[in-house]
Amino acid sequence: xxxxxxxxxxxxxxxxxxxxxxxxxxxxxxxxxxxxxxxxxxxxxxxxxxxxxxxxxxxxxxxxxxxxxxxxxxxxxxxxxxxxxxxxxxx
Length: 91
Hints:
Largest sheet: 5 strands, mixed
Strand order of the largest sheet: 2-1-7-4-5
Structural class: mainly beta
Helix content: under 10%
Low-confidence stretches: 1-9
CATH superfamily of the domain at 18-78: Beta-grasp domain
CATH class of the domain at 18-78: Alpha Beta
Strand content: 25-35%
CATH topology of the domain at 18-78: Ubiquitin-like (UB roll)
Distance between the termini: 45 Å
Order of helices and strands: EEEHEEEE
Number of strands: 7
Oligomer: single chain
Mean pLDDT: 76
C-alpha cells in the first residue's frame, strides 16, 4: 500500500480505493503517486522503464514524476535496451 502521509492526505486513510494493474493487480490508497512508489510496490527492478497504457499509445513515466492514477489504469515495465539482442539493430 502507498503511505498516505506521503500522498498528501495528512495521515488519514483515503476513502477511495484505486485498483491499477502493473503486471498484476494492486490497490492504492492515494490518487497521486510517484513512479518510484509504483516501482517499489510492484517490485520492478531498477533500470526498467515504467509506462502507462493510454488511448493513442503508451505514456512513459519518469521515476521522480507524480502521476494521477485512475481505477483500472494499466502500467507495465520494460527492461533496458541491450545491444546485440536485436533491439537496436537496423534491418
